Amino acid sequence: MRGRGGEEESESRIPLLKSLNTAEEDGGELKKRVWVETKKLWTIVGPAIFSRLTTNSILVITQAFAGHLGDVELAAISIVINVILGFNFGLLLGMASALETLCGQAFGAKKYYMLGFYMQRSWIVLFVCSVFLLPIYLFTTPVLKFLGQPDDIAELCGVVALWAIPLHFSFCLALPLQRFLQCQLRNKVTAYSAAVALVAHVLMCWLFVYGLQLGVAGTMATVGISWWISVLILLAYSVCGGCPLTWTGLSFEAFTGLWEFLKLSASSGVMLCLENWYYQILVIMTGTLQNPRIAVDSLSICMTINGWEMMIPLSFFAGTG
């Protein structure tokens, strides 16, 4: 009886041992899958974090050089970057987000040639939108005076805004190109172009501000040049053989379906603007305080630090998408 009881007890332990072994195998398989997915995510997130931090650093360096010119110059640069460019960039960035959705669907469906067509449609829509936004730069001074900004800051903002127009039109090409490459997991190209632009920007800022002494206008001009350097690198890579499956050349098909693309882009752009408008409103309200120069300068530094921090979660959102 004791022998049979021992055999029955050992037999009853066999299913338990099998379940434990299965649980260990499942746990090991889960860890392996998590590690694989993590590596896939970081291949996108890592370059995205670097490129976003680098691009944001271009604006930070510009404000730092403007701070050496004077309080009014720093306040003018800060208002143009955070209010004028911030509003327009937010709208164009949201509109370019529609391209991210369409390119992701086309790439998943293996309709690779459609990515190039979608990007060309985005170029057209964003360029037309940029033309309609151009009066914001041309009438910056009277608008800021109407909103209660000091005359000296508003006048200088008008000069800086005119030099920001080349940067404004670079968004039309840069934002679609970044999403076009991101959907193909080519974020490293964007990171390399951002690094080249950052190095060039530092050298140009030193040359324009200290060497040629071009003042606040030259400081703002360096931002546009740096962005165009990055845009030209991305454009050359995309159309000169870097993406043979997704870029098949310019096509008149890009002019079809523009209205539907515009509606999808506009909804995304307005949504992103509503999320960012309170930053612009905060800067404008700060400019109406006593001693607005110091107030705007201090707020711009705080917003710069906040902008740096936001680049990391935004990169994870891009990787998840």
UniProtKB/TrEMBL annotation:
Which of UniProt's keywords are assigned here? Membrane, Transmembrane, Transmembrane helix, Transport
Q: Name one GO cellular component term.
A: membrane
User: What family does this chain come from, according to its entry?
Assistant: Belongs to the multi antimicrobial extrusion (MATE) (TC 2.A.66.1) family.
Main localization is membrane
Protein name according to UniProt? BnaA06g24260D protein
Q: Where in the cell is it found?
A: Membrane
Which positions, given as ranges, span the membrane? 41-62, 74-102, 123-147, 153-177, 189-209, 215-237
Q: Which gene encodes it?
A: BnaA06g24260D
Supply one GO BP term. xenobiotic detoxification by transmembrane export across the plasma membrane
Molecular function GO labels: antiporter activity; xenobiotic transmembrane transporter activity
Taxonomic lineage of this organism?
Answer: Eukaryota, Viridiplantae, Streptophyta, Embryophyta, Tracheophyta
Q: How does the protein's chain sit in the membrane according to the entry?
A: Multi-pass membrane protein
Organism of origin is Brassica napus (Rape)
